Amino acid sequence: MLSRVLSGVRRSLSLRALDAADQLRGRSQPLVPPRRLNFVGPGDFIAVGDEFLGHFTELGELQPDERVLDIGCGIGRMARPLAGYLTAPGGYEGFDISREGIEWCRRHYRDVEPRFDFEHADVANALYNPGGTQLASEFCFPYPDDSFDFAFAVSVFTHLVQADAANYLAEAARVLRPGGRLLSTWFLLDGESRAQVAAKAAAFDLRERDTETAVASEGTPEQAIAFDQGWVRQRLGEHGLAVSGVWPGTWSGRPGGRSFQDIFVAVSG
């Protein structure tokens, strides 16, 4: 236990030193959080955000004047590129279980136009927010029905168990306007990806948890969870979301993937 604490302290001090060096060298940017806020580095933060802006516009057909919901916005990795893309009357709403991330975003997006709003959701997650006061399986997104033209969840469903994921899909459908699009990323299980996992070709080991999911850690399934593609399609259909496209990722060892995770785009009826 002590060694784990000391390791955490050393990592925190190291990241703070790197933050200070970034500022001295003029490498810090207004909408890029400091490294100590739990991401691997400013290059990856920027590169992944820019990558997904391309997915939003090309796969999800996002337009600059649309209302956008960021499900699990973290520390603004997707908000940063959207701040240079969205225009009035469009706008952005994001929520996340990280209070520190939300507070940082609120401070740094205060003067961004069009308006960017961030909400803290104290939702329990065994890995990221074990002390949360609300269950993800019962959480109601803090927005009225038919509020958004476009919603996305990047690296969210890869950390939710079935009941939680099902509720988040239902809530996403509720807040989307007719014709609105949901872009979400997953680790999807089908014949090919299961074969790749069995052959140890995937980026990590997965064990079948049941007929619908496979996990990297049986003790903490939220660490990384894969869903049967049929299960995802069925849940989307139950909530009036018609799948318009699926783009496999490279996580399973497939060559030529669109991104690391698999991408689903569905349209609200």
Intertermini distance: 52 Å
Main beta sheet: strand number and arrangement?
7 strands, mixed
Helix content: 25-40%
Shape: globular
Helix segment tally? 7
* Strand adjacency order, main sheet: 3-2-1-4-5-11-10
- Element order: H for helix, E for strand: HHEHEHEEHEEHEEEHEE
Blueprint (SSEs and pairs):
Blueprint: H1 2-24, H2 42-58, E1 67-71, H3 79-83, E2 91-96, H4 99-108, E3 116-120, E4 148-153, H5 162-175, E5 176-186, E6 188-189, H6 191-198, E7 207-208, E8 213-215, E9 225-228, H7 229-238, E10 241-247, E11 262-268
Parallel strand pairs: 1-2, 1-4, 2-3, 4-5, 6-9
Antiparallel strand pairs: 5-11, 7-8, 8-9, 10-11
Describe the structure.
It is globular and about 50 Å long. It has helices spanning about 1-25, 40-60, 80-85, 100-110, 160-175, 190-200, 230-240, and strands spanning about 65-70, 90-95, 115-120, 150-155, 175-185, 190, 205-210, 215, 225-230, 240-245, 260-269. About 30% of the residues lie in helices and about 20% in strands. The longest helix is centred in the N-terminal third of the chain and has 23 residues, at about 1-25. It has one domain: Rossmann fold, CATH 3.40.50.150. The chain has seven helices and eleven strands. Strands 3-2-1-4-5-11-10 form a seven-stranded mixed beta sheet, with helices on both faces. By secondary structure, it is an alpha/beta fold.
Summary?
The protein is an alpha/beta fold. 32% of the residues lie in helices and 22% in strands.
